[in-house]
Structures are given as structure tokens and as C-alpha cells.
Write a structure and sequence with these properties.
Helix 2 crosses helix 4. 47% of the residues are buried. The longest helix has 19 residues. The protein is α+β, with helices and mostly antiparallel strands. The radius of gyration is 22 Å and the shape is globular. 26% of the residues lie in helices and 19% in strands. It has a single domain, classed as Nonribosomal peptide synthetase, condensation domain (Chloramphenicol Acetyltransferase, 2-Layer Sandwich).
């Protein structure tokens, strides 16, 4: 969304109310469709080699919130017949945002579980919480809510041999140091915006420059008119896409999650595709393989990809700032059971053409239909009912899954005496009908991947098998007919 560029103005006296900001389109649609069973949360975990001082960290994070005032907000109360939800900007946090839970066994696993099941309330400013999880003795890695979502110990017998010569790790607890664990109510904010606030807190805490690194150079293509963009041989977007086949659902509601650390995939020299394209292809082939194993009929795929055009400097607009595009794959493209270098290379090139074209499209964040749906013509309660009904009706056309690639974390996240971040994980909500999301980021030359799923669709064991398939196909994208990377 387009956040306010000016700082929040607050009451100078008892007669003036705090400033209010109408919900943008993304916030309103999310607010209409909230479910207690599967909260719309985003989680970020930042692993540090040391432990920050509690008083200094609280002071630094609170000051960072003040320097990004758009994060200091709560949902304003209003009559049932109001035509908009509104954010009420506050001068200070309503509650203590930063907490240091007492050390306990499986503390990080429990923090992950909380992030999937307990969203910070929208009625309290700000709608985020930051927990600092202290180090604990190394333990067997497990996924939240299960006992078989670990690293190599959870490898699934029928998963293909990845042949990469490297082990994927699925950490459950820091061997030393601490983890900064952010939980965000996604109705109000997204991961990149909160990471920007955390980078400001790191600079205030450690005194080190946390300015964002320069983004990689790419051919300028933004702002092209929609009619002038060629999406190549992409299949039609009107056909209902494939769903992730049901695995072994768990009896409890909510989301499950598994995190993994992998090498950043290499690319052949001069390759026309990006790491994002490799991640996209690996995700598509992972689900296609999974669906074949479960007897699903081949269907087209569509994978939602958030695109974030915001600057990463202090001027970064805070809120839900990404726009969503859908990358299509035809059923014929993903039916093969034997993927050689030439096949992988051809799929990567086609995917690169589509992603470049889609990123260049100029369109509203959720499309023009959502912008029309949130027009303040009817009372908000009536629009909410219409939105929920349309969401249910449109479920068969919802994309197959969501791949959110944060890319290289642009900030050093240097917390002085607590050290510099050596791993950063994100995860996005995974409600049905998608039921599965994949979120990636890279830090210190490693790829950090979070698999998150609806428990009514998959189990922890299913998540571990999908992780193995993803690693296999991601490694396969390193070797194409352009040549094997050295």
C-alpha cells in the first residue's frame, strides 16, 4: 500500500483526537477475512551470536518505532454503519513490545508455535511483538506441532536423492547466542516493513551503520503499460489451477511450519535467469512431484509472487507494501518425471521471461476488482460479508501456492555486543485454499527457507518430505544445458 509520507500528528491537548488513517485496500480485505483458527501472522526470526542487553534493546526498539511512526497504530473503534475501517496513530506503544521470556526447554519451538496461533491484537498499538529467546542446549530439531519435521533425521524414504553433497539443517534452537523473534499481524504490516524497523533498532542499539546494501543491478522495466507486456507462452489464467494434494492432515487447526537452511543456489555463468526464477521452478517442481505421488490429475499451476518496489532506506513506507503477481505454468510443462539439464534450463528460461513481464505490469496491489470492492459506498459490515462470499466463490481460482522471496537481506543487522545476524527466517500465512507457502531469504551466503502449511491439509511429516523435494529440485536448477557451475 501507499503509506503516509508525513509523520504522525498526535493530540496537542485533550480536545484533539489522534490522527486516523483509512485502511488501504490490502488491509481491508485482510480484515474482512480474519479467522481465529488460522491467524494472519508473519513471523521473522533473527539469529544472533550473542544476547542483547534487555534495557538497551527495549529502548532502541521503542525509539525505532517512533522513527517509523506509521507502525505505531491500532484499529480505531467505530459504529457498525461506518464506511471504512481506520487506523488510529499513537504517539507511544500501548504495551511493552519487547519481552525476554524465561529460558525453558524448546523455547524457540514454542515461540514459533505462538507466532502461528496467537496474532498480536489489532486493537493495541503496535500490532507486533518482539520476543528475545535465549540460548539453550542443542536439541533434536522438530517442526512446531510435530515430532518428525527435523533435518536429516526426518528425510522421507521416497524422496529423491538430492545428490548435492550438502546437508540441509532445520534448527530448533540456537546453540549459543539468542534469537530475536518478531510476530506481526499481517492485516497491518508485512515482513519487509518490520525488518526495516528492526534494522533501525539495530543501528540505535549497536551504533553501527545498518544502511541497506545497494540492490543488484537489473534492467529497468517498471512502469510499462499493461497492454505492451508480453508474457510469452504462459497458459491462460482463466483455468482453475492445481491444488496442493492433501497429505496426512492433523486433528488440530491452524498452521504448521518447518525452517531449513540450504546453500544459495548457483547459476551458470551468463544465465538469463535469476535466483528467484530458480526458487520459482523448484517450488513448482516440488508440488508437481508431490501431486503425482498422491495421484492428482495434471493441471495448470499458478504461483503467487509478491513484488516489493519500496526503497529500503529510512523513507521506506511502512505497512503492507507488496503487490501480488501470479506466475503461470501449463500442465504439460510439469508432467515429466525425469528432469534433465536441458529440460530444467528450458523451464528456467520460460519462467524468467514470465517473471520479468509480470514484474513490469502496472496494476493495483490486489487487482482492480479488490479496489472496487473496497470502495466506501456501503457500510463496512456489508462489504465484509460480500468480500467473504466472493472469496469462497473464487477459491477454485486461487493460486496453487505462494512463494515469497525476500532475497538477500539488505541490512547487516549488527547489534554491537550481541553480534551480527547470521540467519534470518520469514514465514507467510498458509490458509486454504492454498494451504502451503514457501518463504525464502539469504543471509551470510546461506538460503533460509520456511515451509508453512495448513494443518487441515498437511502434517509435519508431509512438510519434511516437501522440504526434501524442494532441496532436490533447487539443486537441479544449478545444472542446465548452459553448463555446470564450477
Amino acid at each position: 500500500m501507499t503509506a503516509l509520507d508525513h509523520p504522525a500528528r498526535h493530540a496537542d491537548g485533550p480536545e484533539r483526537l489522534p490522527e486516523r488513517v483509512p485502511f488501504p485496500v490490502v488491509d481491508e480485505v485482510s480484515r474482512h477475512c480474519l479467522q481465529e483458527e488460522e491467524p494472519e501472522t508473519v513471523h521473522i526470526e533473527v539469529h544472533l551470536p550473542g544476547t542483547p542487553d534487555p534495557a538497551r534493546l527495549k529502548a532502541a526498539f521503542t525509539e525505532a518505532l517512533r522513527r517509523h511512526p506509521r507502525i505505531l497504530m491500532r484499529e480505531a473503534r467505530g459504529p457498525w454503519y461506518r464506511r471504512r475501517y481506520e487506523w488510529e496513530l499513537t504517539a507511544e506503544p500501548d504495551v511493552e513490545v519487547v519481552t525476554f521470556p524465561a529460558p525453558e526447554r524448546d523455547a524457540l519451538k514454542k515461540a514459533r508455535t505462538r507466532s502461528l496461533s496467537e496474532a498480536p491484537p489489532l486493537s493495541v498499538s503496535p500490532p507486533i511483538r518482539l520476543e528475545v529467546i535465549a540460548s539453550e542446549p542443542a536439541a533434536k530439531a522438530v517442526a512446531p506441532g510435530g515430532d518428525n519435521g527435523s533435518g536429516s533425521e526426518a528425510s522421507t524414504p521416497d524422496a529423491p536423492d538430492n545428490g548435492s553433497g550438502s546437508e540441509a539443517s532445520t534448527p530448533d534452537a540456537p546453540d549459543s547466542g539468542s534469537v530475536l523473534f518478531l510476530t506481526i499481524n499481517h492485516t497491518a504490516l508485512d515482513g519487509p516493513a518490520c525488518l526495516r524497523v528492526l534494522a533501525t533498532a539495530a543501528e540505535l542499539y549497536g551504533g553501527q551503520d545498518n544502511s541497506p546494501a545497494a540492490p543488484p543491478l537489473r534492467t529497468a522495466s517498471s512502469g510499462a503499460p499493461e497492454s505492451a507486456v508480453d508474457v510469452g507462452d504462459a497458459p491462460s489464467g482463466w483455468a482453475p489451477p492445481a491444488r496442493v494434494s492433501r497429505g496426512t492432515p492433523e486433528p488440530s487447526p491452524g498452521n504448521g511450519m518447518l525452517v531449513s537452511e540450504l546453500p544459495v543456489p548457483r547459476r551458470p555463468k551468463g544465465a538469463p535467469f535469476t535466483v528467484n526464477d530458480q526458487l520459482m521452478v523448484a517450488t513448482a517442481l516440488m508440488i508437481a512431484h508431490w501431486n503425482r505421488e498422491h495421484g492428482a490429475r495434471p493441471k495448470p499451476f499458478r504461483i503467487t509472487m509478491p513484488v516489493d518496489d519500496r526503497p529500503r532506506s529510512m523513507e521506506m513506507p511502512i505497512g503492507n507494501g507488496t503487490r501480488l503477481v501470479e506466475v503461470p505454468f501449463s500442465a504439460a510443462e510439469l508432467t515429466s518425471e525425469a528432469w534433465g539439464p536441458e529440460d530444467i534450463g528450458a523451464l528456467l528460461r520460460r519462467t524468467a521471461e514470465r517473471t520479468r513481464a509480470l514484474k513490469a505490469l502496472s496494476r493495483p496491489q490486489l487487482g482492480r476488482g479488490a479496489a472496487l470492492l473496497t470502495s466506501p459506498v456501503l457500510p463496512v459490515v456489508l462489504r465484509a460479508a460480500v468480500t467473504r462470499g466472493l472469496r469462497r466463490a473464487a477459491a477454485p481460482w486461487t493460486s496453487t501456492t505462494l512463494l515469497s522471496n525476500i532475497g538477500r537481506v539488505p541490512y547487516s543487522l549488527d547489534f554491537g555486543d550481541a553480534g551480527r545476524a547470521h540467519a534470518v527466517w520469514f514465514s507467510a500465512p498458509a490458509r486454504l485454499p492454498r494451504g502451503l507457502t514457501v518463504t525464502t531469504a539469504s543471509t551470510a551466503g546461506r538460503l533460509h527457507v520456511a515451509f508453512r502449511w495448513s494443518k487441515s491439509l498437511l502434517s509435519s511429516g508431509d512438510g519434511a518430505h516437501l522440504r526434501d523435494l524442494f532441496e532436490h529440485y533447487l539443486h537441479a536448477t544449478e545444472h542446465t544445458e548452459e553448463g555446470t557451475t564450477p
